[in-house]
Model the fold of this input.
Amino acid sequence: MELLQPEVLEKISALNLRAKIIVKGFLTGLHESPYHGFSLEFKQHRPYYQGDPISKINWKLYARTERFYLKKYQAETNLSAFLLLDKSNSMDFGENISKFHYARTLAASLAYLLLHQNDSVGLVLFDSKIESFIPPRSRMNHLKYLLATLSKSKPSGKTSIKDVVFELQPLVKKRSLFILFSDLLETPEEVTKTIGIMKAKKHEVIVFHILDREELNFSFRKEALFRDMEDSKTLLVDPKSVKRLYRDKFNQFLSKYKTDFAAKRIDYSQVVTDTSYDKTLVKYLEKRKRLS
Amino acid sequence: MSFPEFFFLFPLIVVPIIIHLLSKKKLKKIDFPSLLFVFKSEVRLIRWFRLKDLLLLILRVALLVSLILTAANLRIPFSFFDVAETLILDKSPSMENIGIKDKNVFDVPVHSGIPQFLPYLEKCPTGILITDAQKNGFTEILRQREKFPGIRIKKIAFPEGNLGILSAKSGPCFEDGKNNIIFEILNEYKEDKKTRLTLKSEGKIVMKENRIFKEGETELNLELFLEKGLHQLSLELEDEKGFDFDNKYYFVLNVQPRKKIHIISKNYPARLIAALNPIHFEVTLTENISDMKGGLFIACDVGERELSNLLRNNRPGIICLGGDENTSVSNKIPDRVSTVVGEYFFSGSYNLSFLNGIPINYNCFITAGEPLVYFKSGNPFINKIENHLILPVSPETNDLSLHPVFIPLLFDLINLLSGETFNRNILLDEPIIIRSSFSPTIINPEGGEYKMDAVSGNVYIFRKTKTCGFYRITDGMATKGLVAVNTNPSESKLESLSDEEINYIFGKIGLNNGASFFLFIVLMCFVLSVFIERGT
Done:
């Protein structure tokens, strides 16, 4: 699982290769296949191996061939997922890996995983407005298109989830799963209200709140001129003197999201950019199981 | 003592100012996702930053200034730390002289409680030595200086000045004649000074007289009539009230009997006869060496035929070669001027260093014998063949005989041929070096006997000249020579204490050593600057 550490993976430049390594590595570590139980459409037979459940043996085929075979089923799904990636300037923050890089790799990995499960995957890149909209498709060819779009994207602009959601509504008619990757640097009430509207329209939403360790700790030492990455305002700050106040306010900000999303039954995860990708993917799968 | 020369470092204080001005422009910029959570402390921070920068600048400048003042050891008018500093006091008799306000120079520091520091000298090897720097009483303290390099030595001058004997000079001394001794005097008096002179020989007073030294007079000429033999003499100076200046000067005179000198000359020996003063020598003009009865000869302008004749006989003599032809011990060369070099001691007592740098015209190159003195070119100037001394010049025809060194040279050469004697004057701690055919023993002024160490061949050395006085050289039986040992005259020329230092020692102004105070300031500035920079 060391390979799934963000610092290690960041050395691989090709996004598709990164996504593949994450998903394959991640699946290898699981004891139970996540594919099971979604569909019953027969795909092919496979030989029985010691340890397979006896109940799954095709006895009719055994009668004909006197060999043990198990039936394999192809998953069948009508899940349509949208990966909503915040590409605002604030996502460009991070010493080793920026929040944007982390979110982009995570989104690519999820796209890879979803398409391998025959789910339809679409992509929305946004700041205060939608920059790219790719409708969901379930073909594997679609992955290349998604990854190419993700690779080309660069952080810019200011976040406005409310505007984006309103812009997105006419484009999404089918009930869908929205997976949002953002640092959510907006008023929590406004964001939760907007996401709540999506939920009310029977969409499922998973929110990955992307955070950098430095944002949490605020462990700067020397006084410096701090510049807001989104509105370019500057402020002379002595980190030591404001550290406690900052941490209190930031924790309040995070708690607010946590309680508000929980109240609206929206899946919300805080993801720090030094967390390995597999842990984040597990959170998605838990949600996916519930959906199935 | 302060070292104001360190003040040249003061321009360095512009360095922190420049760094301050530069760093002001180079405030680090950090891009941060959102300033929603940090905006409230802005105004307070800016004020604090400005104050902090200013404080740091002041502390750094103060640190540098204090460092410079520490190095300069600037005096301060209060006592910050009790600095362990020892005062060492010269307690020789000369310190009894009446000094400031009817107190003598010894009493002033004594009554200030200074002697209590003396037992701590070993523990505290820094201090100030108070002395009148009179020679003999000062010697032991000077020797201690090597053990305590941190001690500053200063002289408290007498109010009227100082008086002492620095050195003595004399030519060869002979019996039945007037011998002149010239003394070099240290005379700091600004007016005529009445003194008493006491001359002692073998501890007995041979002369006592009053003498007035005029301002600026630095020479004393004594005329002595002495019997033949080695004399241990000392001259003491006292002021009219009987005050001892601590100044006893030791010297040795070797008074010789009148010798017979036979001059063998073809030409005109007037110069030579004039040089050999009839008061000191019995001079005879001789044509044939076989006619000589006793004494030694000086043969001038010797050619080949005469040379072999002279060398064959065993009478001692000085042979001055002529330049007309080659001889068995010389090669004729065109007339050449060369400079005499080398400080050559031979027979232990004769030092021909007075010949150094003298240009002499010579006309042959000596090829035989043991060279004693050389020309700068490396050619020998004086060679010894058995009991004959060979010179490549003739006093009759060469300009050497016009030179001031000629008479001392001639006298020394005669002494050398007359037999071994060792009488010299040296300074304290200077080794006695002699060349001797026997293994000599030294007897120091206290009567201690020491075998001299052989350095090489017949050269012997004795290094323990730790006491002033007379050192006897013996062959185990009889005294063969004397060496008078005196203190270094430069000791009497020590720098006097400045007014500031006198005030410091005697507490008039009470300026204290500021180095520790400024060092404390340096440390405080450093700690504060680190605290402000990191701790806040």
Summary: The first helix of chain B runs from residue 14 to 25. Chain B has a mean pLDDT of 78. The first strand of chain B starts at residue 29 and ends at 32. Chain B touches chain A through 21 residues (CB under 8 Å).
